[in-house]
């Protein structure tokens, strides 16, 4: 969990910086492919992030709600 939550958080923050928006149009499958893991692992991690109030999930979209907490995860 520890390294995967950091990797997913870092990926989301990096993509948001590149796209210039907190609303990313990307699938769980695409995130998994970028990180070299399985979609199910990414889905589980994103659902955890959503439960903690850091992101909001919709079909084909991940919206970052708490950039500070994601950055804190990434930087631990």
Structure report:
- The structure is a single chain.
- 62% of the residues lie in helices and 13% in strands.
- It has 4 helices and 3 strands.
- The chain has helices at residues 2-19, 28-35, 39-51, 67-74; strands spanning 23-24, 55-58, 61-64.
- A 3-stranded antiparallel β-sheet has the order 1-3-2.
- The longest helix has 18 residues, at 2-19.
- The protein is globular, with a radius of gyration of 11 Å.
- The relative contact order is 0.22.
Kindly list the characteristics that best describe this protein:
76 residues, alpha+beta, three-stranded antiparallel beta sheet, 3 strands
Order of helices and strands: HEHHEEH
Determine the mean pLDDT.
95
Bin the helical content.
55-70%
- How large is the radius of gyration? 11 Å
Indicate the low-confidence ranges by residue numbers: none
Distance separating the two termini: 13 Å
Return the structural class. Answer: alpha+beta
Tally of alpha and pi helices: 4
Q: In percent terms, what proportion of residues is strand?
A: 5-15%
**3D shape:** globular
Q: Compute the number of strand runs.
A: 3
Biggest beta sheet attributes? 3 strands, antiparallel
């Amino acid at each position: 969990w520890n390294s995967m939550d950091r990797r997913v958080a870092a990926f989301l923050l990096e993509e948001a910086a590149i796209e210039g928006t907190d609303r990313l149009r990307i699938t769980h499958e695409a995130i998994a492919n970028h990180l070299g893991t399985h979609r199910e692992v990414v889905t589980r991690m994103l659902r955890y992030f959503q439960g903690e109030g850091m992101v909001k999930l919709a079909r084909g979209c991940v919206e970052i709600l708490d950039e500070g907490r994601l950055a804190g995860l990434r930087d631990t």
